[in-house]
Fold this sequence. Notes:
- Helix content is 34%, strand content 33%.
- It is an alpha/beta fold.
- The protein has a seven-stranded mixed β-sheet.
- Strand 13 (257-264) and strand 14 (267-273) form a beta hairpin.
- It is globular.
Amino acid sequence: xxxxYFELVVKVSSCHALFSDFLNDTLPVGxxxxxxxxxxxxxxxxxxxxxxxxxxxxxxxxxxxxNIELECIQTKQKNSDWVESYQQSISPLQIDNFYIHPTxxxxxxxxxxxxINPALAFGTGHHPTTASSLKAIGKYVVSGAKLLDVGxxxxxxxxxxxxxxxxxxxxxxxxxxxxxTRENAILNGVAFSNLWEGSCSASEKQxxxxxxxxxxxxxxxxxxxxxxALKESGVLILSGILDKHEKKVLSFYKELxxxxxxxxxxxxxxxxxxx
Length: 275
């Protein structure tokens, strides 16, 4: 291991999800999400990443017709500080009756514990869409319910539902997410009924609850499949929606009843009912 590494702190004024997608698609290394941006660490200098972010920001501003502030600060750190600083940045989090904690933190015996290894997770529960989706699961999922988690990511939502007593299937089009979900399930001592790489259309079942924490464009594209996966009177939890896209998403689900809307910052989660 080298004695030092490079740390790049990226801060953006808006479009956090789009920047996250860009980094997921382009980075050869992982990154950490923070409230207003990202932290990227590498043994190599990150000047090329800074250039790419500047080009992406410029293109995004032209496409959206608005100003986006980008700040990139690169520093050199001692490797001995990396693990300690990273662990300190991932703190336990309570979301209603759920308690999400990294593997090095103690459980809370009074709550439903979800352990995560952040090295395996795209979602640690700190993002508003993950938090609001868990809130909805805690409210609308009962023991024995059949649930489908579409775009499972780190598996946090499905694991939470299993710990309530639900039978959970999960899928993601990204094989890395599927592997992360499988390993986080093992970490929590639970098992998914079915877990596959691919879309929700691969399942011929119908479910009491379907949860999809993705992005607005995908939620509109797979609307027919999500609705088909629901039983009559089933509940659909849609998340990952920026508030400016809410009306567009709802227009693809207008035959469903809107039960609840959970808003946090610029993010919206919609809970809908079929029939």
